[in-house]
Design goal:
Elements lengths: L23 E4 L6 E4 L12 H10 L2
Antiparallel strand pairs: 1-2
Length: 61
């Protein structure tokens, strides 16, 4: 089975028909702005807003 071929419970593709994602409020670990993320934040892992996440990804951190 290839990517996005509609397999039941597939890890790739298939996420488009679930409806709106549940978003969770979080505070960015870098800039302290409030943001929303598509996963439940864990207390022992930092969460970053979209801007800070992009900056960290580009800098290789």
């Amino acid at each position: 089975m290839g990517f996005g071929q509609g397999g039941e419970g597939g890890r790739f593709g298939g996420g488009f028909n679930r409806g709106p994602r549940e978003m969770f409020k979080a505070t960015c670990a870098d800039c302290q702005k409030e943001c929303e993320v598509p996963f439940k934040p864990s207390e022992n892992r930092p969460v970053y807003c979209r801007d800070c996440f992009s900056k960290r990804k580009q800098s290789g951190r």
